[in-house]
Amino acid sequence: MPPAMETLADWLAHCEQLHAKNIDLGLDRVRAVADRLALRFDCPVITVAGTNGKGSTCAMLESILRHAGYRTGVYGSPHLVHFEERLRLRGESVDAAALLPHFAAVEEARGSTSLTYFEFTTLALLRCMAATGVEVAILEVGLGGRLDAVNIVDADCSVITSIDLDHMDFLGPDRESIGYEKAGILRAGRPAIVSDPMPPDSVIAHAQAIGADLWRFGHDFNVAGDKQQWGWSGRGRRYSGLAYPALRGANQLINAAGVLAALEALRPVLPITAQAVRTGLAMVELPGRFQIVPGEPTLVLDVAHNGHAVAALAENLDAMGFYPTTHAVFGVMADKDLGPIFARIGPLIDRWYFTDLPTPRAAPAADLLARWQAQNTRKDASGTACASPMQALQAAIDQADPTDRIVVFGSFFTVGGVLVNGTPRLQARHLLRDA
Question: 160 pLDDT exceeds 50?
Fold first, then answer.
């Protein structure tokens, strides 16, 4: 046992020192330690993988199941502000003190086995969830699926959300190879919900090859709707007159459709009422997913950090109506493909505030500014580099009129960086002057 591990911060610092690589995909090491811990769940497990929409899907599952009366546990990553956000029990972030014995147990069980920060913390959080006696476990995959630490747990139902190009250094160069990695969470004979309307062939082929019970969007379940309400139909159930999910954005309907398919597939072990579906979707919350914070100027927070997610963000911004000027705070990891991001959202952004982030994996703000300038064709757009997300947000506030909007997007570090003191409520300086 390492000396003086008295706080969660002590343990997290210890976990950061253990392994040569930040990401080291593979299940052998983590499975060996899980076996020594006798890690297992005595309740239904839903595992969620995908490029975008994982967090929203988990939040909707959690909200509906909680409104149906179940004790829920949700594991997800990364966190926005506090590490404890990675484990929600009955809708609340886990208490740091409750995690300490589980970190100690993982340390003892691993012996000389080297674990990455992600593997070590995942084991500790899963052990804590299992020990708490949850009635349903919802597990969000960190990266990929097949070789992600979460995949040591055999899911009773797997959900694959939208698949697009991201983390290509680890997952492969195209949607087919990335789809194959995501499909690694599927299990023979168990429901496999694919909510991507146009999934890679590799996902379907793998599901069929292992004999999973495949549920496809547009085949086994579907949605229809108008401006006021929407409906869902599955293999044996229908819901009509549903309010749109409280999470905003057109893409959330596809996520919600996959959620309802998963819940229909699990109906024999997790029965829910139509009222729980209605209330759960209407009440779901998830910070940083097209989160609109009222104020002057309006603030929009979104963890979109790849081309596909940024395209959805741009569509959602378009639908918000007219703002004289749109300011953007943006910071992202160095491995992101910036071309599609700038091409899609560039026309909507008048002033950029690029930010450094507190991790060596991030692209420096000066590099982002240079990359933006190299492709920018708008004479009326401007960009500047800032040292931190909070500094970038303040620079935007200083430039903004009350009727403008400020969009903070990119990495979890970017959005989390402006949430460190809680959700900012903006009051433009022009208003304060007249007060």
Answer: yes
**Are the C-beta atoms of residues 336 and 330 closer than 8 Å to each other?**
no
Pair of tokens at residue 189 = 């004979």
Give the position of tokens 């939208």: 162
Does 269 score more than 60 pLDDT?
A: yes
**E strand map for 103-184:** 136-140, 157-160
Asked whether 127 and 111 are in contact (CB, 8 A), the reply is no
Burial of 246 (0-12, 13-18, 19+ CB in 10 A): middle
Alpha carbons within 13 angstroms on the beta-carbon side of residue 42 total 6
Beta-strand ranges (E) seen in 197-342 are: 213-216, 222-225, 230-233, 238-242, 291-293, 298-302, 326-331
Distance CA 54, CA 31 (A): 23
Tens digits of per-residue pLDDT, 293-315? Answer: 989 999 999 999 888 889 989 99
User: Hey, which bits of 10-153 come out as E strands?
Assistant: 45-49, 72-75, 87-89, 92-93, 136-140
Least confident of 55-59, 207-211, 286-290: 286-290
Environment class of residue 396 by beta-carbon count within 10 Å: exposed (0-12), middle (13-18) or buried (19+)?
A: buried
CA distance 341 to 211: 38
pLDDT of the residue at 1: 56
Token code pair at residue 209: 């090859």
3 state SS of 43? coil
Q: What is the DSSP string of 155-185?
A: -SEEEE-B--S--HHHH-SSHHHHHHHHGGG
Q: Which tokens in the block code for residue 427?
A: 């009051």
Cβ neighbours of residue 299 under 8 Å, at least 6 residues apart?
292, 293, 405, 406, 408, 424, 426
Q: How far is CA 411 from the centre of its chain?
A: 11
- Answer positive or negative: Cα dihedral of 270, 288, 93, 87: positive
**CA 226 to CA 234: how far, in whole Å?**
19
CB 76 within 8 A of CB 143: no
H or E segment at 67? helix 54-67
Greatest pairwise CA separation for the chain in angstroms: 68
Rounded to an integer, what distance in angstroms lies between the CA atom of residue 330 and that of residue 412? 11
Per-residue pLDDT band for 393 (boundaries 50, 70, 90) equals: very high
Q: Is residue 405 exposed (0-12), middle (13-18) or buried (19+ Cβ within 10 Å)? A: buried
Tokens linked to 96: 């740091």
- What six digits make up the tokens of 225? 């709707």
Tell me the residue type at 365.
Answer: A
How many Å apart are CA 33 and CA 113, to the nearest integer?
8
Q: Tell me the torsion sign for CA atoms 53, 151, 35, 110.
A: negative
